[in-house]
Amino acid sequence: MTDATTADRPAIAVLGAGKIGEALLSGLLTGGRRADELMFTERHRERSGELTTRYGIRGVDVATAAKEAGVLIVAVKPQDIDPVLDELAPAVGRDTLVVSLCAGLPTSLYERRLPEGVPVVRVMPNTPMVVGEAMSAISPGRHASAAHLETVEQVLGTVGLVVRVPESQQDAVTALSGSGPAYFFYLVEAMIDAGILLGLPRAVAEKLIIQSAVGAAAMLARTGEHPVTLREAVTSPAGTTIMAIRELENHGVRAALLAAIEAARDRSEELGNAHKTG
After folding, report:
1. How far is residue 80's CA from residue 213's CA, in Å, rounded to a whole number?
2. What is the model's pLDDT at position 103?
3. What pLDDT, on a 0 to 100 scale, did the predictor assign at position 1?
4. 74 a known binding residue?
């Protein structure tokens, strides 16, 4: 990375080493970062020791991370953000890029609580980050430049794909791709249950459905075809697939999915609104 923010302090610190934080550290190592260029914060001493042993990365406190790292990636739970910001406020400077992976939290929260001029980029990742297949959407705060966005793209590009969106669209992103993997897991779970209902052993049903999901996703990603086109290619006249599709439509599955994603968007807005003022 060559952006001015990280030129003198190339280290990256991940604040909060849960599943997402660990996945990001692992991805950065795989992407060519040295262990001595990375650090993390973790409240639980045992967990910190495990990560240091596993990756050779140093566990530090928030003040040390703010002093030594040019990029601070905040990966704590949204409800835990206040004590982290309290620790960051006296330690972080305008030459440090703050990247928030906290669902629902607006850049204005960080800009209000941290020193004036600190650049902030908001990110909505998702859990496939743990297998290097994340979908992350990034949005700049008031003080974040194009160079800051490029830095974040380089970091997150080690664990998946990245798109830029206006921050006003982040709640929609949260509902669609942030929560999206759960919808697929829910559907796969139901399809496996259907296989068992039809008399298949669970192990066989799981293998059939999981590989079908992997293959279908690969077709969508690699062919560039619209999902309607791909679905129609499987749907023969008076065949088995069209009968199944008719039942899905009769039971309002499409409408239920639209309503579910809207509800997730509304909840993301509620979480963000709680931190917009005060």
Report:
1. 35
2. 87
3. 43
4. no
Pairing status of strand 71-74 against strand 12-15: parallel
Q: What is the pTM of this model?
A: 0.90
Q: What is the 3-state secondary structure (H, E, C) of 124-138?
A: ECCHHHHHCCEEEEE
pLDDT for position 4: 45
Binding site annotation covers 17? no
Name the domain boundary from 170, 200, 222.
Answer: 170
Ligand-binding site membership of 90 (annotated): no
Query: 207 and 160 in one domain?
Result: no
State the residue range of the domain holding 123. Answer: 4-170
Q: Tell me, yes or no, whether 184 and 165 share the same domain.
A: no
Say how far apart CA 102 and CA 106 lie, in whole Å: 9
User: 230 Cβ partners below 8 Å, 6+ apart?
Assistant: 216, 219, 220, 223
Is 237 within any annotated ligand binding site? no
State pLDDT tens for residues 200-210.
999 999 999 99
